[in-house]
Amino acid sequence: MSSFMSISHSWxxxxxxxxxxxxxxxxxxxxNQRTGVWKSPEAAVAQNFHLPMRSLExxxxxxxxxxxxxxxxxxxxxxxxxxxxxxxxxxxxxMNIQIMNGAQGxxxxxxTGEGHLMSWDEHIMLIxxxxxxxxxxxxxxxxxxxxxxxxxxxASEQGFAVGMHAALHINPYYGKTSLQGMIxxxxxxxxxxxxxxYNVPSRTGQDIPPTVISKISGNSNMxxxxxxxxxxxxxxxxxxxxxxxxxxxxxxxEARWAYGAVGVISVTSNLVPGLMYExxxxxxNTLLNSKxxxxxxxxxxxxxxxxxxxxxxxxxxxxxxxRLPYVPLPVAKRIEFVxxxxxxxxxxxxxxxxxxxxxxxxxxxxGRY
Length: 369
What we know:
Layout: H1 3-10, H2 13-20, E1 30-31, E2 38-39, H3 64-68, E3 72-75, H4 88-100, E4 105-108, H5 120-134, E5 139-143, H6 149-161, E6 166-170, H7 179-190, E7 195-199, H8 201-204, H9 210-216, E8 222-227, H10 231-239, E9 244-246, H11 252-258, E10 263-266, H12 273-281, H13 286-299, H14 306-314, E11 321-323, H15 331-344, E12 364-366
């Protein structure tokens, strides 16, 4: 036996306690001989003592460069059971379809995945589930952003602890903040691991201007920006050497081939992942892009993910269950979707069954779950 092993083997609880500065426990539970009453041992409590985590111990550690090269990232839908809990069987099937059709990454619990309707426990569980089941085949990017820096820190710590490859962070919404406040918020969360910044003023009510992105762009964990303002903004960032993803499915083809975007973080790829793969990988194809546009326009006629939820239900890929406040599109729009599927070709859409027009009473709306 080596001397190291001999020394470590000979250490007892009191030696370790002395080394790290906390009170040792009682050696064992005791029993008062006179009364026969059992007394539990005292717990050893180490105050503010943490061993540093080595990088090799961090599950699925990935580099920022691995994230920067992802061309097709799907903002994955979260399906539900009739009581409003996650339908993990349907979720796993949808994930497998994405992987088989070339998606390189997924956003878990984003706007499309309805992270804002989840508790943080649900949120982190779903990230961990995705990592454990699919993390070796696809990059898992957890939406751990919040309008509260404290919540964003805590969620990101947990997300990286369960193995997500990168975080998606939005700027503080509703309450908003100053430009310096944005910088401080992002610098805080960027310290935790590879991160994509998400700019979508239509939802947050506040643009992340280039001056803010410029301030944080030098951070070693800054993977890039999901940009929804438009392709001129994308070009500005690309010219500065940044990795940018289009956040607008209707503009992503031009963003990729004319403005230099790495690719897209897509809602539409939930439905037609193979076609979105072609648009991102196979060169400029205006004919295919035009073919997909009626679907994209239909999807975003109401706030996302209302259209997507309705579409996946009619394709039989998920149960027709909505967590309120989302409700299905009206029947006229449901009929229109069937016609769009027929025009593009059912074989390009996820799922194996026929596309159907569901009746109003087939949808389940859940307020408590």
